[in-house]
Amino acid sequence: QVQLVESGGGLVQAGGSLRLSCAAPGLPFSTYVMGWFRQAPGEEREFVASIGYSGDRSYYTDSVKGRFTISRDNAKNTAYLQMNFLKPEDTAVYYCNAQGPTADAYWGQGTQVTVSS
């Protein structure tokens, strides 16, 4: 059974930084597009960022461009989300997603990020 394990969430002041990690042991990692989504209380889950198989292409939602950076280390089966200049509106549960070549997909359990003003 594939499991995605997120870590790195927490409480930070506005303007601070956090780095989220998503480990995917047992997944043929380099064949999966990796992504991060988030869900704030009372809101729908929304796309944050994604990165292609080799890490050469990445995409971001407009609200995080220039502040967040997604990356991956295929040798470690791990994806990352570096979040800088955090804002209170970034507060949400962040979920890691792995999208496979045959439309199979996996989700992590989520990690809470809280940004205080």
Instruction: List the total number of helices.
Output: 0
Number of strands: 11
Helix content: under 10%
Secondary-structure element series: EEEEEEEEEEE
> What is Rg?
13 Å
> β content, as a range?
over 45%
Task: Round the mean pLDDT to the nearest integer and report it.
Answer: 96
Weakly predicted, low-confidence segments: none
Oligomer: single chain
Structural class: mainly beta
Query: How far apart are the first and last residues' alpha carbons, in Å?
Result: 40 Å
Largest sheet: 7 strands, mixed
- The backbone outline, from C-alpha atoms, is globular
Task: Report on this structure.
- It is built from no helices and eleven strands.
- The protein has strands spanning 5-7, 10-13, 18-23, 33-39, 46-51, 58-60, 68-73, 78-83, 92-99, 105-107, 111-116.
- The protein is globular.
- Strands 2, 4, 5, 6, 9, 10 and 11 form a seven-stranded mixed beta sheet that branches. It has a four-stranded antiparallel beta sheet with strand order 1-3-8-7, with no helix packed on it.
- The mean pLDDT is 96.
